[in-house]
Amino acid sequence: MNKLLRSIVTYSYIIGYIPTQLNTLKKLRKRKAELTTAEYDQAVFETPQRWSQNILKKAGATAHLTGTENLQEGPVLFVANHEGNFDIPVLIATVPKPFGFLSKVEVKKIPFIADWMDELNCVFIDRSNRRSALNSISDSVESLKAGHSLLLFPEGARSKGNEMKEFKTGFVRIAAKAQVPIIPIAIVGTSRLMEQNENKITPAEVFVKILPAVYQQQDESTDTFKERVERLIQDARSDLQGESR
User: How many CB atoms sit inside 10 A of residue 130's CB?
Assistant: First the structure.
């Protein structure tokens, strides 16, 4: 299958699958009062996970996941590097723990997808509005305190396979206020699926590594802790790049 045809098939599936699952969402919402937070999050996660796994198949992506032994019970803040647009589907497809994620507010305008994102407890942010950015920190903290795990990309923009961008410190404040562990994740290869091919979808191998949970020390400054997490992900990313060659 050539790149153009693969792109058309993949994008058609991305757009076309979720509207077919509205009845599933309605049924889940009716069951919400019967389930614990963890049970409901798992039930909601199954459809986006299946959707993401099929997206990877149609894109020709082969995902390799290591480090699942580092996952924990209860809410956690996943912190990952941001290589490409396929980061979210790759992580939803492979990480066996439900989570929501921080997303641009423009996504709320997309029918059907926004409905599922609400149930995943995603947090929306308008990066052009400082008040919205501050509110997103509060919303993230509240979601974590309510028992939902969350994924953040502290770079704020895709590296597209180049060097990681400097992390912003917001994730440190979120974890501290919510009193949850940070679980770093390193990702390599997602930009090969799209960004490095003039945005035409191309088969590629993707590597994901879940690292042990990290905690801010009592005498550790926000900047120092941010740099420690950033360095852990950078080192793991370098190891994965060696494996992917």
Answer: 9
